[in-house]
Amino acid sequence: MLKILLPTAMLIPSSMAIKQNLLTTTLTIYSTALALLSLQWFNNPLSLNTFSNQYTSVDPISAPLLILSFWLLPMMILASQNHLKPEPAARKRPFLTNMVTMQLMLTLTLSTNNLTMFFILFESTLIPTMILITRWGNQPKRLEAGNYFMFYTLFGSLPLLNAILFINNQESHSNLLLMVTMYPKLSNSFTNNTIWAACMAAFLIKLPLYGLHLWLPKAHVEAPIAGSMILAAVLLKLGGYGIIRISTILAPAPNTLLLPPIVLAMWGLIMTGLTCIRQTDLKSMIAYSSVGHMGLVISATLIQSPWSITGAMIMMIAHGLTSSMMFCLANTIYERTHTRTMVSMRGLQKSMPLMSALWLTANLTNLALPPTINLMGEVTIMSALFNWAPPTIIVSASGAMITATYSLYMLSSTQQGKLSKDTSMCPPHTREYLLLIMHLIPMGLLMLNPQLIT
């Protein structure tokens, strides 16, 4: 584990010390080397104990999310180059240092064995994300978005902290691997239910659960492209990862506790889909679609069957790559038109035909076209939900139909129609094509070998 952690940590002093004219190039190459090095975690799960010690470990649940976060770092640096171009040299370095710090915190969060350490690192990812939104956001409302993001997350973290301290007091240690072997000795069912609800609150807000999701569209819309990518691809997945991790050390919750969040998540799948259909802001539409997809992940992780956990893992990785790619595509248009309103973007197929082909690929992946891993994730989760409660198939199937509707609406409203007379589109850069192909490569490889994340 240290062979990855130490080079990642050394990226922070490197980003401060490298010469200005070599900064982005060196960091991109260095982080790409780390991303390729992290692919060894796809190794046989029985061999992953070679990457473990008493403080950190990698297992088949954390490995795909760790690889996704490492794969995303060079892509975030590539995507941010145009955003950083007008910035003075003194402000480029803190931006890159902030992203690298976030990467280190994410790596530690997804690999730590200690429950208390997990809470500290889980909350510490809030700081660089907050700085990214409030300092480098594009719009005047970025401070409001930062406040929403901070207060929603902190509101959920206080019950989680109390629950972790209680479990630590009961067990006299906070090692997750030891706790898995024996459930905490809770005194009665009321205590058990309270601890379960307190632990889930923080993760359901992070995912987010419909009704607790208002921070997400604001954060996505106001964040720079690097912030949107890391939020969509990895930071939302920390909630699902946390539920999977902490459920192993809690006594099973009764159905009376499981029903409200699952009903809200399934209702959110329908409502956010309908919200997407009437959105005019492109980034807001992609953000709301994330809430709907995460509704499926919430339902799957709460059921806690092997089939549903497999589906949730596939869905998290598939959504991470797809939504990150869609934000990159939206950003390429925003950098040319300086608007996110979809009416102003029509007719792009005539000016950028190859980019339109990539738009088509991203939208078809988003609506879970066969044989994409998105479809595998959705079908696995729907099967697990149907097995748990047959009526859920009506809601999940309706959600899939609405997802297809707004995905095709997004494609037609941005690519079809007449190009505006006052719009002059410069052709896409090689850097932008490279960025999008770096999203497509893992999608294609996972389609060929989905066992890597199942």
From TrEMBL:
Keywords, ordered alphabetically: Electron transport, Membrane, Mitochondrion, NAD, Respiratory chain, Signal, Translocase, Transmembrane, Transmembrane helix, Transport, Ubiquinone
Subcellular location: Mitochondrion membrane
E.C. no: 7.1.1.2
Catalytic activity: a ubiquinone + NADH + 5 H(+)(in) = a ubiquinol + NAD(+) + 4 H(+)(out)
Domain NADH:ubiquinone oxidoreductase chain 4 N-terminal: 1-109
Primary localization: mitochondrion
Job description of the protein: Core subunit of the mitochondrial membrane respiratory chain NADH dehydrogenase (Complex I) that is believed to belong to the minimal assembly required for catalysis. Complex I functions in the transfer of electrons from NADH to the respiratory chain. The immediate electron acceptor for the enzyme is believed to be ubiquinone.
Name of this protein: NADH-ubiquinone oxidoreductase chain 4
Natural source organism: Acanthosaura lepidogaster
Gene: ND4
